[in-house]
Q: What sequence folds into this?
């Protein structure tokens, strides 16, 4: 017997309620079913179930069509909260990587992360950056490239020898350097930072849209939060040095991880950064789910696809809306690429010399920003965001790399680097 997808049940229930309300205009349930006011029965029938959607399909759709589809699915999923979270990967199945300054990666799993960190010399003596992926790189070129840019940027940040960083392999694909994003020579004059980069590749387990939609954010976050507690305890890592970065749905997982960390230790993580925090489709009734200010000492967010995969709702102490909030983002052709721009922007800011590429001002809209009606002082989106900030900030971005409107002059050259693959280690 075939089991019907939960979202398909929601759609059919909505159709029935639309029919009932047509005959009973004063029914109290009419106000409850807001989608009936903007979606016809035929449109409801044409809305696919979550297991019928792929990232590849979303990447092949126009920005407008992809955004419309995701908005419909989100609103339908909120009817009586009938879509319940039901997917949590086991810790042993979540791949993790410790990335060394030379690009070598130490592969492990979430359940063994603390022990793997403990085996690394000097781990945790400086800052610890934990990047939680939120989409599968194996399913999307946009995701693969954005994640690779993030890793390369941190390798450059933590490269104490100040050597030109090489091109690294991400998810089995070697990619050459082609833009000023990689060829900037500003790194030569910067003082290096020291630190450790940890990748928790949760996105690898969200390898279809159904898993993405039905992920239990709270349980997944508690699982990762416990792993971070074990890591800090075994390696004597100070809370103030830990920066957790969550991508898409993983931004909310990071928030839940921060709460679990506080529950177990009585202390807060220093910072959580959300890279285009997603809408949450599956929620438990009577439970507040999702990233919010207070999940760490400082929470900042970059929203790049608020009407598609992302959310327009504030989630942090400070929320940045590049070119928005709006339906379009310069240079992005689809909702997946637009969502990944948040990762690309942050990665650009991580590269030495680019920390202040993204100046922003407090404003309620792009129009207000352009009319110079922004309030307060100029601040910077990305790695250099000041921790004492609050509110909504608007900025403009370029369509291509370098994305920051205030990017430093970048010298072009023909250097493309050596393809230097990450080495798998058992």
A:
């Amino acid at each position: 017997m075939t089991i019907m997808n939960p979202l398909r049940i929601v759609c059919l229930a909505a159709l029935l309620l639309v029919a009932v309300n047509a005959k009973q205009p004063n029914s109290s349930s009419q106000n409850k079913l807001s989608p009936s006011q903007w979606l016809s029965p035929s449109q409801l029938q044409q809305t696919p179930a979550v297991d019928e959607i792929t990232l590849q399909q979303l990447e092949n759709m126009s920005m407008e069509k992809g955004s419309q589809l995701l908005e419909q699915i989100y609103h339908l999923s909120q009817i009586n909260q009938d879509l319940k979270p039901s997917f949590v990967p086991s810790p042993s199945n979540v791949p993790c990587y410790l990335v060394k300054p030379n690009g070598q990666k130490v592969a492990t799993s979430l359940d063994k992360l603390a022990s793997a960190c403990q085996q690394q010399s000097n781990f945790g003596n400086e800052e610890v950056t934990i990047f939680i992926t939120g989409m599968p790189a194996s399913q999307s070129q946009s995701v693969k490239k954005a994640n690779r840019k993030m890793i390369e940027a941190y390798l450059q940040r933590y490269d104490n020898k100040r050597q030109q960083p090489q091109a690294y392999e991400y998810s089995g694909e070697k990619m050459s350097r082609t833009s000023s994003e990689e060829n900037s020579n500003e790194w030569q004059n910067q003082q290096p930072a020291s630190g450790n980069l940890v990748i928790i590749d949760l996105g690898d387990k969200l390898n279809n849209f159904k898993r993405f939609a039905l992920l239990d954010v709270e349980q997944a976050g508690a699982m990762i939060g416990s792993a971070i507690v074990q890591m800090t305890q075994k390696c004597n890592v100070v809370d103030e040095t830990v920066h957790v970065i969550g991508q898409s749905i993983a931004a909310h997982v990071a928030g839940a991880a921060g709460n679990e960390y506080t529950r177990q230790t009585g202390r807060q993580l220093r910072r959580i950064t959300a890279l285009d925090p997603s809408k949450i489709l599956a929620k438990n009734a009577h439970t507040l789910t999702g990233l919010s200010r207070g999940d760490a000492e400082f929470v900042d967010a970059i929203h790049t696809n608020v009407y598609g995969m992302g959310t327009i709702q504030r989630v942090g102490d400070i929320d940045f809306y590049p070119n928005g909030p709006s339906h379009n983002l310069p240079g992005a052709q689809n909702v997946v690429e637009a969502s990944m721009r948040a990762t690309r922007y942050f990665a650009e800011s991580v590269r030495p010399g680019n920390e202040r590429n993204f100046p922003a001002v407090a404003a309620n809209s792009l129009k207000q920003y352009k009319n110079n009606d922004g309030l307060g002082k100029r601040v910077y989106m990305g790695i250099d965001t000041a921790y004492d900030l609050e509110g909504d900030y608007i900025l403009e971005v370029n369509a291509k790399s370098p994305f920051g409107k205030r990017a430093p002059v970048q010298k072009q050259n023909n250097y493309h680097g050596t393809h230097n693959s990450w080495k798998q280690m058992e």
